[in-house]
Amino acid sequence: MNNGESMEIKERKELEVTVDKRHIISIGERLYTESVELLREMVNNAYDADATKVHVEISPERIVIRDNGSGMDMEGLKQYFIIGSDEKVIHSRSPQFGRVRIGQFGIGKFASLAAASRFEIITQHKDFAARVIFDKNDWKKAKDKWHLPCEILVPDPERGDGTTVILSELSRSFELEDVEKKLMEGVPLRAPDFSVYLNRRRLYPRSFIGQRIPILEGSKYGTVSGEIIITPKSKASPKDLGIDIKVKGVTVKKDLFGMETWGKVITRLKGEISADFLPITSDRSNFVTDSEEYQEFLKVMEKIVYIIKKTLGKEADRRDERKAGRAVKEALQRIHKALAQNPDLSPFGPIPYGEEEGIGGGGAVTGEGKKKKEKESDIKPESAALKPKAPRKKKRRHPLVKRITPNAIVRRMQMGESSVSVCLDFFGESGPECFLEGNIVYINRDHTLYRRESQRAVTYTMYIARLITQEISMMKETKSPRVAFNRQSKLLKDAFAGE
Q1: C-alpha separations of 210 from 229, 265, 271, 402 in Å
Q2: DSSP class of residue 31?
Q3: DSSP-assigned states of every residue in 328-360
Q4: pLDDT at res. 50
Q5: Contact present, 93 and 99 (Cβ < 8 Å)
Q6: Angle at 415 between CA 319 and CA 398, to 5 degrees
């Protein structure tokens, strides 16, 4: 639709506004503290009218909201300017797409008084077209009654059905970034057959990368559904903290439901929860918190918060296991190097320098190594096939590690003809810090010192290395603790030489 400057007027009428002027002041200038709220209301009106496209154009001089919805006839225009009309309550779904209508209070157009002095609406429905001008200055001059000039226009078949709203003589400025954010939060961009354009650029719903937790919980008032996303640490952001709580596809507010006490991890929580049964306040900025529906919703959210906490706990466990595995591997590599440099300190005999094969957990790496050798051996010179096969080496037997829990972390390193295994497991707070069984070093993850050092990235590997070298030194020297201590000190020094 165009802006109506060149349209032919067929008849002139007036529409009576049936609302107390004090209410208009309250609704328009006091109720809407943010001027961008009224743009959200206008776009949602277009959604309720079965529009498939809405164009919002913002300039310093004026704002135009244009849609291709069903438009309004004369009766529709009268309903449009009645505050508190129950039209959308009685007809809660749109006629064409069966959309659950968002608007309830019919106050969006009066919100324009907070930001503009002139509100113009041009609408067309089938063979009816009209323009209504809502002027704040004229309203101030009027007494008890107030009539809006309504021009009946000649319908334009090329223009088609739809509504255009023009706000001019702006008293507030609109920042594109603020408008975009409000529209992305406050209009149903995920709805099918519905798109919104801001200054000719289409808006898309926000999407996040991370672990997704689907939500679907029932209550006696209706369904609570949605999706919570735990974003990677690299994507964590302190901006816009909270989960979007939506009613009929529109974000009413963000909330953390007590999760604000969890620390920095809340910066990774994103997502949205929908509960269409929730009653909302007239300015659509909050819920009626003392209602039975909202109290029921809070009970459901307690379950959802528990699910989020449990998922975060599992993720933290996996992260700790990866970190522990890396620390043990690095500690073993450093100790291997130190033992190769100091054969007199090794209980395993001389260790070839640079031999670092066989580091892994549960033999997984060893298995991959065998496959690789087999593939390489497939390509041989013809003469090699005539040579007698070398006798197969006896398979080395590795000590059997006793796992106490399924989450035990096991790493093994070949030390010459022998091997050393390290097992990190949970042996209770009163259990030993570490102990030795054969060539297996067991480290207690429940021990107070382990829990403390595992949180310190700088000293974690050093702590693991201290426990392993302590037990290796005891293998070499069992009679004199002092000699064993000196051996350990030398190993640690060479393992971390230059740092």
Answers
A1: 6, 13, 11, 35
A2: I
A3: HHHHHHHHHHHHHH-GGG-TT----TT--TT-B
A4: 95
A5: yes
A6: 75
Chain mean position to CA 154: 50
The closest of 229, 248, 243, 322 to 88, measured between CA atoms, is: 248
pLDDT at 377: 32
Task: Give the pTM.
Answer: 0.60
Q: Tell me what pLDDT residue 463 has.
A: 94
Tokens describing residue 18: 């049936």
Sites in the chain below the pLDDT cut of 50: 355-387, 395-396
Residue 487, classed as helix, strand or coil, is helix
CA-CA distances (angstroms) from residue 187 to 44, 168, 290, 319, 469?
6, 23, 26, 37, 62
What are the helix (H) ranges across 142-264?
A: 176-186
- Structural domains in the chain? 9-203 (3.30.565.10), 211-289 (no CATH), 317-371+398-495 (no CATH)
Distance CA 340, CA 219 (A): 66
Identify which of 421, 427, 426 has the alpha carbon closest to the alpha carbon of residue 440: 421
C-alpha closest to that of 108 among 48, 198, 194, 20 = 48
**DSSP-assigned letters across all residues of 231-273:** --GGG--STT-SEEEEETTEEEEEE-TTGGGGGGGGGGEEEEE
| Residues ≥6 apart with Cβ < 8 Å to 440 | 399, 401, 402, 420, 421, 422, 423
Instruction: Look at residue 222 in the predicted model and tell me its pLDDT.
Output: 93
3-state helix, strand, coil split of the chain in percent (to 5) is 35, 25, 40
Helix axes 292-341, 457-476, angle to 10 degrees: 50
204 backbone dihedrals φ, ψ, rounded to 5°: -120, 150
- The confidence score (pLDDT) of residue 385 equals 43
182-228 pLDDT, tens digit per residue, is 898 889 998 999 999 999 999 998 888 888 999 999 999 999 999 99
Report which residue type is found at 80. Y
Instruction: Give the per-residue pLDDT at 384.
Output: 41
In the structure encoding, which two tokens stand for residue 79, read together?
């309903």
DSSP string, 42-103: HHHHHHHTT-SEEEEEE-SSEEEEEE-S----HHHHHHHT-TT--HHHHS-B-TTT-PBP--
